[in-house]
């Protein structure tokens, strides 16, 4: 449970960094809403993102293993972008504002999220 919570928080920070860096191409929460409402939106998006990555991600990655090997891992960029777009669809069903401008912006966002997760995860994991 502690690991899930830390992954959720790290994902929230990484998604926030990606939304900040990508500007209008990736949005979480409505800018006209209060900060508290936007923080809740980030936490909901991060929760869905964490669940999608931990439940759907491994299945797709195992099924795509030959393509991942054939492309020397570049297929993982496509898979991560598609998982991010799936997160967008799911959060849309919950009426949470989460928008990415398209596939290539999702690819860029997934790269930013992966790097951010690695950096933040290093700090969270160093408290042992």
TrEMBL record:
Q: Which keywords has UniProt assigned to this entry?
A: Membrane, Transmembrane, Transmembrane helix
Give the superkingdom in one word.
Answer: Bacteria
* Listed Pfam families: Phage_holin_4_2
Entry's transmembrane regions: 39-56, 63-83, 103-124
Instruction: Give the PANTHER family listed for this entry.
Output: SLR0284 PROTEIN
Write down what this protein is called.
Phage holin family protein
